[in-house]
Amino acid sequence: MIAIAVIDPNRAIGKGGELLCRLPGDLAHFKKTTLGKTVIMGRKTLDSLPGGKPLPGRNSIVLSRKARLGRFYDDGSFSGFFLSSPEEVLSYIENELRGEEVYIAGGEQIYRLFLDRCEALILTELEQTFPDADAYFPEFRDQFTLVEEGPLQEENDYRYRINLYRRV
Question: What is the pLDDT of residues 121-166, one digit of tens each?
């Protein structure tokens, strides 16, 4: 598994169910990286997507304690499922995906549940801090090391790098 997120220097990832900021370059990178892959997210993250619909061209697994379990999306090539426990998610990955790349896409609780299973992190690291944030990426620096630092980019008055970390 690979966690993918945008974080500030304090590991903030969001506020009020929204991303910290809009970065078209990062969104394009996220799309390029995850297209055709499986993406795991929580229900709140799904609800925050346009129309509350899964991302096109990806197999979406949504972890939710709510009652609406089972298949919720199918376009013939990609599908999405609601699953109710981390164990169900791991079983699905093991039995159905068998070694395919799987991306953890948030939110905070989902990152916390699966970080120990991730072999890599793709983190868009902002230079700015967001003191009013209310959602955070888990502490990772003792478990992962930076292996590839991306070039400094600037969009919408935000400076950031897209960095790759591997488990120590």
Answer: 999 999 999 999 999 999 999 999 999 999 999 999 999 999 999 9
Using an 8 Å Cβ cutoff, are 86 and 66 in contact? no
CA distance 83 to 71: 9
- Would you say residue 17 has pLDDT above 80? yes
State which residues form the domain around 95: 2-167
- Contact by Cβ (8 Å): 12, 112: no
Q: Which strand (E) or helix (H) includes residue 46?
A: helix 43-48
Provide the domain count of the chain: 1
Question: Residue 68 is encoded by which pair of tokens?
Answer: 């609406």
Token reading at 163: 């960095």
What's the whole-model pTM score? 0.93
97-111 core/surface letters (b: 16 or more CB in 10 A; e: else): eeeeebbbbbbbebb
**Residue 15 burial by Cβ neighbours in a 10 Å radius (0-12, 13-18, 19+):** middle
Contact 136, 10 (CB under 8 A): yes
Categorize the per-residue pLDDT at 57 as very low, low, confident or very high, splitting at 50, 70 and 90: confident
Average pLDDT taken over every residue of the chain: 91
Q: Taking 60 as the threshold, does the pLDDT of residue 50 lie above it?
A: yes
The CATH number assigned to the domain holding 104 equals: 3.40.430.10
